[in-house]
Amino acid sequence: MISAGAMAAPRAAAAGVRGSAPASSCTLSFSGLRRVDVLSHGERLSGFSAVQHELSLCNGSANASRGIVTMVGTGKVVIPCLPRVARIGRGQGVIAERLDRFSFFVGGNWKANGNKESVKKLVQELNDAKLEEDVDVVVAPPYIYLDSVLNTLTKRIEVSAQNSWVGKGGAFTGEISAEQLKDLGVEWVILGHSERRHVIGEKNEFIGKKAAYALSNGLKVMACVGELLEEREAGKTTEVVFEQLKAYADEVPSWKDVVIAYEPVWAIGTGKVASPQQAQEVHAEIRKWISDNVSAEASSQTRIIYGGSVNAANSSELAKQEDIDGFLVGGASLKGPDFAAICNSVTSKKVAA
To answer: What are the alphabetically sorted keywords of the record (predicted)?
Structure first.
């Protein structure tokens, strides 16, 4: 099991702005480079809305202020209220910082779709696509097409399997081992997808062990989490997602080669999609959980991607969210031009930064 690491002390920062006498201030608590919560007049608020809440209070102040962002030894930041014209966007700073640290990530899960001709056509569309440089692109064909895709797809795009066995190969009919995938040249594997959980019946602990074994054999893992519609309606989204995250954390020794994919089950293949705000809220909670239960370093370095009816029309707005580092795409990944457009939604991320 991974023990919680000591929080890394954030860098001190200061920003001078025009103004007069200082107004009221708000205190934010950080883990590493991440905001965790806000204390507002004794009341604890969480999520990006907490920052918006405090800054809106500042915005209503009649007095402009000279603002300084000050780091203190406890890892807290005091942000005096800033006048409207000089307000600094915390979310924008985090987005820019994250884009500097790692690339946007888009995975395409082809599931059990396609035949030889359609796969050949899709590969050609992807080979012809013009993709932004700072986006990592991975596609996951059905097992029987892995070899042909590996041999014909541009090296610009990596290849993933959709599943792997929990241990070494042997008498496990219908399964495929991590060793076999590596032998073929596969770099990634998708684990914990909702269809494996709720159709095949895989449990959290089993999925965690599969992830650990895949990583130990050199595969990188897209580790899926997400809640059912009835769980969301019952207010259990974070409870369910945290249990799934814990199953990974209990088994995985390092998160360096892990991408977390949040896929609300009610939005997969239904045409429904979480609003950008709904997706951002859960992504922020996932990042905080990783910081609190794995380490601040893992929290700041782990990409958290969104899946659930992502398409060319909605990807740009989703990409602008602070904690959405990419997408895991289903049906739209079967159309080369649409998938390329989703990959290139990283440009919206840059604008937001």
So the answer is: Isomerase
Q: Which of 263, 281, 285, 322 is catalytic?
A: 263
* Whether the predicted pLDDT of 21 surpasses 90: no
Check if the beta carbon of residue 164 is closer than 8 Å to that of residue 191: yes
Token pair in block for residue 274: 């979480």
Domain residue spans in the chain? 1-88, 96-352
Using one digit for the tens of pLDDT, what is the confidence trace for 29-78? 333 333 333 333 334 444 434 434 443 333 443 333 333 333 334 343 33
> DSSP label at 171?
S
pLDDT of residue 118: 99
Distance CA 143, CA 150 (A): 11
Segment 234-273, tens digit of pLDDT: 999 999 999 999 999 999 999 999 999 999 999 887 888 7
| H/E element, 220 | strand 220-225
Q: How far apart are CA 197 and CA 179, in angstroms?
A: 23
Average pLDDT of the chain, as a whole number: 80
pLDDT at 352: 72
Output the six-digit token pair for 193.
Answer: 């997808």
For every residue of 266-281, DSSP letters joined together read GGSSSS----HHHHHH
Q: Catalytic site residue 193?
A: yes
> Helix, strand, or coil here: 193?
coil
pTM over 0.70: yes
By the 8 A CB rule, do 187 and 202 touch? no
Residue 287 region, left (φ>0) first, then alpha (ψ -120 to 50), else beta? alpha
3-state class (DSSP) for residue 133: coil
Instruction: Single out the catalytic residue among 158, 193, 202, 283.
Output: 193
- Tell me which residue has tokens 């107004």: 23
- What is the phi/psi pair of residue 135, to 5°? -140, 130
Question: Rounded to whole angstroms, how far apart are CA atoms 286 and 269?
Answer: 23
Q: What is the three-class DSSP state of 314?
A: coil
Q: What is the CATH number of domain 96-352?
A: 3.20.20.70
